[in-house]
Write a structure and sequence with these properties.
This protein is α+β, with helices and mostly antiparallel strands. It contains four helices and nine strands. The strands form two sheets. Strands 1, 2, 5, 6, 7, 8 and 9 form a seven-stranded mixed β-sheet that branches.
């Protein structure tokens, strides 16, 4: 399991993988928001997306299963990730905690479409997929870290100042989450 530590406060940020999420679903029979709706959002590029029937955490693009269970789980909503946290006795980082810890990660940042979504042990937690953070508002969730689509000329999501919010039911092929110990 990949983790990023911040020596200042000894918090360890762990991206949740497909293998870990599958263990949770197997133990609890949990059904994600995307599975309940029967569709989810598939990002084509930084500017374009489509809704795809059958897209969920098992088949992020709606047709293909994941190629590695060490990839960060995607197509999960805040609600889904929160249920995982309760089951695993973990918590989301706040937006500030995410950046404090993630900025310590010296591995390659996946952005600018340079690589596909990569195994969590191989790349920086910044980039790769957007990360859900603890909800600051009752109706929305701030995403951190950007995704492989982000660059300075597009969404500029791999910088802390970028603000991107989604509702608590939104899942996307480029949204995952990381956890901290309680």
């Amino acid at each position: 399991m990949s983790l990023v530590s911040c020596n200042k406060n000894t918090l360890e940020l762990r991206p949740v993988t497909y293998a870990q999420f599958a263990e949770f679903v197997s133990a609890t029979n949990y059904v994600t928001d995307a599975e309940k709706y029967g569709w989810s959002v598939v990002q084509v590029d930084v500017y374009n997306f489509v809704t795809v029937d059958g897209a969920n955490w098992r088949k992020p693009d709606g047709s293909s299963t994941v190629t590695s269970y060490d990839l960060p789980v995607t197509q999960v909503s805040y609600n889904d990730a929160k249920a995982y946290c309760t089951w695993a006795n973990k918590r989301f980082p706040t937006y500030e905690e995410f950046w404090e810890i993630a900025n310590q990660d010296q591995r390659e940042i996946v952005s600018n479409n340079t690589l596909p979504i990569s195994n969590v042990s191989e790349v920086n937690i910044i980039g790769n997929v957007w990360d859900i953070t603890e909800a600051e508002k009752p109706d929305s969730v701030r995403l951190a870290g950007g995704s492989l689509f982000c660059s300075e000329s597009t969404c500029h999501g791999t910088v802390q100042e970028r603000e991107l919010y989604v509702d608590k039911e939104t899942a996307n092929i480029h949204i995952g989450f990381s956890v901290l110990d309680r």
